[in-house]
Amino acid sequence: MKKGGKGLLLSVGSNLIELYIMVREVVGKYLSYLAVLFFSWVLIGQLIQANLVVDNLNKISGTIDTTMEITLFKSRSKEKYHELRIFINEKGDYFRLMDTYDYPRFLPNIKRGDSAEIYIRPKWLTVLGMGYGNDIFQMAINGKVVFEISETRKTAKGIAVIAAVAIPVFAFLAALINRALRKHRRLQPTSVLQKLGDKVGV
Which of 95, 144, 146, 165 has a CA between 20 and 30 Å from the CA of residue 137? Predict the structure, then answer.
């Protein structure tokens, strides 16, 4: 192949590599910004939930129809988890508790026909705090509280801590990528293929 042809190939290859590096850095930068926004959203929602009291929740009253323990699998993995679904006669939908809250300790005390008072989040907080609208935040059976809101507050505090750590990490990562992009535009470093072309005398 003539030197001119080699030079053209090296030039095209060099440009493609530079473009790939640029796209990768830009994508990484904006993904980092999105991560900061996401964890900020999570932090706000969990901080609100960590300070909830029963008066902030919506109360659902009725009688127990049935309870059902469901086994589910996490997406993209074979790890399984369980949730307790409680059906109320007066409501068409069920209310749920995740196995995070060790519901087997009080499940034997929940029987069909028992009176139940279930407390769930307002709809606006479901969007902000993630999860589902039928998540149970407190529950009383026959007038006795078997699941307290303090347990959900504890979980919310743990998630808030994770989000609070993740925000500066991703913000720092975005700043590093942004700095690298500015340096790349300013210096316009010679690519590996261009150096190779110089060596072969193209």
Answer: 165
Q: Residue type for 156, please?
A: A
Mean per-residue pLDDT over the chain, rounded: 80
Give pLDDT, residue 73.
80
Task: Give the mean model confidence (pLDDT) for residues 137-142.
Answer: 96
Distance CA 175, CA 191 (A): 24
In the chain, the largest separation of any two C-alpha atoms, in whole Å, equals 90
Q: How far is CA 182 from CA 17, 54, 105, 154, 192, in A?
A: 17, 51, 58, 43, 20
SS3 letters for 114-172? CEEEEEECCHHHHHHHCCCCCECCEEEECCEEEECHHHHHHHHHHHHHHHHHHHHHHHH
In sequence order, what are the residues at sequence separation of 6 or more whose Cβ sits closer than 8 angstroms to the Cβ of residue 10? 193, 194, 196, 197, 202
58 pLDDT more than 90: yes
* Whether 175 contacts 34, CB under 8 Å: no
Question: What's 90's DSSP letter?
Answer: T
pLDDT band for position 28 (cuts 50, 70, 90) = low
Contact residues for 101 (Cβ-Cβ < 8 A; gap 6+)? 147, 151, 152, 155
In sign, the C-alpha dihedral spanning 173, 177, 178, 180 is: positive
